[in-house]
Here is the input.
Amino acid sequence: MTIELPDLPYAKEALAPYVSAQTLEFHHDKHHAAYVTNTNKFIAGTELADKSLEEIVRAAAAAPDKKALFNNAGQVWNHNFLWKSMTPNGGGKPSGEIAERIEQDFKGYDAFAEAFSAAAVGQFGSGWAWLVLDGESLKIVGTANADTPLVHGKVPLLTCDVWEHAYYLDYQNRRPDYVKTFLAHLVNWDFANANLAAK
Ligand code: MN3
Here is the structure.
């Protein structure tokens, strides 16, 4: 099937002032769209042409000769997941099962936030910080470039994009401020809870 660029789940202005409409316009309409276009070019006429995005990502990760496809399809999957990881009026402390598990596995929200920030700020160059379910435990992991916990046997619950295109127009080089804002005002805990429930 042709891989589609999903619409943002909110208006482009909806995350302002934390993420501007201009950032979302470039990030979704240009960067994310380009990964979709490239993925479709790579799969056209191949045995992957009628597969789902997740199947394409998994197949490309397992094939050494499909690195270029993985670099695009992984980015499509990660960005699809990213938009849902943020929400207007999001951020702050979680509720529901994810809150209980954060208490249990990180010894409290503050320790979680510190570890998530360290992973996001410390990811060298381009990549992602993730909250994942690894077996029965919540963990924080970083991935570089298009890499995704999906192909490492983990269940992604939440992600923060730390590529400069995610924040440079709004925060310039101040990645720590962007990550702090992501946790305080943007995190979609309902999405993380839904991912946990669906595992
Ligand atoms: Mn991005």
In short: Residues 48 and 56 are 6 Å apart (CA to CA). The pocket of manganese (III) ion is lined by residues 27, 31, 79, 161, 163, 165-166 (CB under 6 Å).
